[in-house]
Design goal:
It is found in: Cytoplasm. By secondary structure, the protein is α/β, with parallel strands linked by helices. The chain contains 11 helices and 9 strands. It has a 7-stranded mixed beta sheet with strand order 4-3-2-5-6-9-7, sandwiched between helices. Strands 1-8 form a two-stranded antiparallel sheet. Helix 3 links the parallel strand 3 and strand 4. Helix 5 runs parallel beside helix 7 and helix 7 crosses helix 11. It is elongated. It starts with about 20 loop residues before the first strand and ends in an 8-residue tail after the last helix.
């Protein structure tokens, strides 16, 4: 592998409080590296590289690879073993970092074997910065990956499904068993890919859209007529047939349409 120096400094200890499960299967690492298109952008950010099993396959791609890692021991390992990467190793917390401080206004893709305990927060941050992130792929707990990609009508379908699919095309790619990690997690993992919908404009107030989706699913067993009571909508509006449905019955476009209906009567939290 180019830009890779064999490990001479010992393994990094997986830390439970960071949710670390280090990928050890080279074939899976190679498959994950291949999930991005590397097209339309030049820079790629890997979140949580650990000991760089995925990193070395990313470094073979025609892209400028950056990694962001909060664990000092992992950073030291990467600095010792990936010498040509040293200037692009960012010892920071992805959830707290200002992405423009890393890339300015440039577009970049994100990839990684994401810690389960912050994976949904990572997706929400990607949605906030979608103007800069055309593509995103990586490994999640299988249940979470399936939920992100799930379509309406399923019990797994929820807030994360709707909000992600409004802006990205979501695709579940393959399942990964616990045995390919050290230490092995107690559940299967799943790899997904998100590709941004180009020239897409959310035809409603975005903050109100988020509010409607989250409020609807907070009482997902109830009809929208009941779950959206807190919005204090007029009775004649709430007689519309869409309010007879439960939230999991609506696709993201129907939630956009619902938000447009509500917009003249609800105050968005701008």
């Amino acid at each position: 592998m180019k830009n890779y120096k064999p490990n001479t400094s010992g393994d990094v200890r997986a830390k439970k409080h960071l949710g670390q499960h280090f990928l050890k299967d080279e074939n899976i690492a190679s498959k994950i590296a291949d999930t991005l298109s590397y097209s339309g952008y030049y820079k790629v950010l890997e979140i949580g590289p650990g000991m760089g099993v995925l990193t070395k396959y990313l470094l073979e791609k025609d892209a400028e690879i950056h990694v962001i890692e909060i664990d000092r021991e992992s950073v030291e390992f990467l600095e010792s073993n990936y010498l040509h990467l040293r200037d692009r190793i960012h010892e920071k917390d992805f959830l707290k970092v200002d992405l423009q401080s890393l890339f300015g206004a440039e577009e970049f893709a994100i990839i990684g074997n994401f810690p389960y305990n912050i994976s949904t927060q990572i997706v929400f941050k990607v949605l906030q910065h979608r103007d800069q992130i055309p593509e995103f792929s990586g490994m999640f707990q299988k249940e979470v990956a399936k939920r992100i990609c799930e379509k309406e009508g399923s019990k797994a379908y929820g807030i994360l499904s709707v909000l992600t699919q409004a802006f990205y095309t979501a695709e579940y790619l393959f399942t990964v068993p616990p045995s390919v990690f050290s230490p092995p997690p107690k559940v299967d993992s799943g790899v997904l890919r998100l590709q941004r919908k180009e020239n897409f404009h959310l035809a409603c107030d975005e903050k109100l859209f988020y509010r409607v989706v989250k409020t609807s699913f907070n009482q997902r067993r109830k009809t929208l007529r009941n779950s959206l009571k807190s919005l204090n909508l007029p009775g004649n509006l709430r007689e519309d047939i869409i309010f007879d449905k439960r939230p999991e019955q609506l696709g993201f476009q129907q939630f956009i349409d619902l938000t447009k209906m509500i917009e003249p009567y609800a105050v968005s939290s701008k």
